[in-house]
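pls ignore typos typing on phone
heme C + seq
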Amino acid sequence: MPRLRRLAAAVLSLAGLGLGHAAGAGEEPDLARWRPAFARPDAAPEPRANPTTPEKAALGRALFHDERLSGDGRTSCATCHQPELSFSDGVARRAGHDGEPLPRRTPPLWNLAWGLTFFWDGRAPTLEAQASGPIENPREMAGDLAAAAVRLRGDPGAIKAFEAAFPADPRISEAHVREALAAYQRTLVSPRTRFDDWVAGNEEALSAGERAGLALFVGKAGCVACHSGWRFTDEAFHDIGLPQATPDLGRGEALDLRPLDRAFKTPSLRERVWTAPYMHDGSVPTLEAAVDHYADGIVPRPTLSPDLPRGLTLSPEERAQLVAFLATLSSEDPPRPAPLPTAAATAGTEPIVAGATRIGQSGRRFAPGAVRIHAGETLTFVNDDTRTHQIRVDDPRMTYASGAQEPGDTLPLTFAEPGAFEVTCGVHPEMHLSVEVEAPPRH
Ligand code: HEC
Ligand code: HEC
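k done
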């Protein structure tokens, strides 16, 4: 995982290079140099604690469609995450068990193996943790994971499937249900599209109009500031100024941080032709309307993301080019999951800097990205960035969450115990610092 986070950060900083270098009118920007920033990885990450095996993914797929996980025996994950709709459901906000619309739209589930947080507000840290959310939510599946596991234990087919998936310990437990569901979802990789052929070097894979849309996306329109990398998401949280009929504070509520109010996770733009309507509340009906929002629809308010373009003007032709480009990130026919890439190595590659205690945060990167210190030493986080950050350590041995760390704020954090810790940012979870804490030196 750490290596992939760093890869994501590297791609992001590559993407950053392009900003501000937008081509002037009539000038063809050098699009070719963007190819590496959008290259598909050749391997999907999987956690060491829950490797993906074909048997486990097959069990997870069966559980995903199994209505026995719900309280009334009538709802499965696939009721809302419908495979033929790219695992979304085609409506703005689906009615919950009580008949009233749920607060948020059902997101598609492509490429979540690369996800760093889950749900629109990022409140679940892993897919394993995420699964109990919908099962036990009274408005979604109104179930009880423990009771569901007990029901499955009476089914000889389920017993066999758990034996195959978990040969070392075939118990039908809540944890195994969660692990199998997560493993299945990690296999949902969106297929290659025409855009990937362009990335691979085939200039003709995109029409002139689509290439003009890409030039706008990485240039004047500034979309790539947030929709970066091959999945077209920075995995961070932004308020993009959508009008809100019913207030939903998103990441601000999840972290209890006012500057993050109305910020939601940047969605991927893969396969979006198949997943209308759009945004966390399903309030935007078409891709055309989504593009229009960035030029005409931004509601000014103090929480707007610093990465959001201000005062963007787009001609009707430019809007059409952007929409045409977005369509090249989708399959021509309703997509089926791509074959699963082989497992990625998880070893770190970031050079460890011994004794460094000042950590910069410019451009959404911790610098250095890996340090070795002694127990009792204090790291000083210097927000030399233009964005609000939140320093976090989520570890059973040490949990820490700062308040909103505004640009210019300096924050000390002391590591009292030896061990390996990971520091992340609550706003930009792709930011990642490895801290190796050694026992204090003997005197
Ligand atoms: C009643 C409809 C419904 C059912 C049933 C349902 N979901 Fe969801 N799912 C949603 C909605 C709505 C969200 C967004 C909620 C939010 O962000 O607060 C969501 C979010 C998610 C996410 C987060 C995706 C992301 O991009 O962060 C995952 C993963 C997920 N669901 C998996 C599942 C699994 C696995 C099941 C079955 C155990 C399931 N869902 C059952 C409606 C549903
Ligand atoms: C400041 C970061 C940022 C920038 C810049 C940005 N987006 Fe977004 N985009 C987001 C976030 C965050 C959302 C989800 C917002 C929500 O639901 O509240 C989103 C949603 C979308 C969606 C809907 C996807 C879905 O599945 O719901 C589309 C399409 C989209 N953006 C396209 C674009 C285009 C085109 C541009 C450039 C004109 C752009 N974005 C610029 C952050 C950004």
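The chain has 13 helices and 13 strands. The longest strand covers residues 419-425. more later
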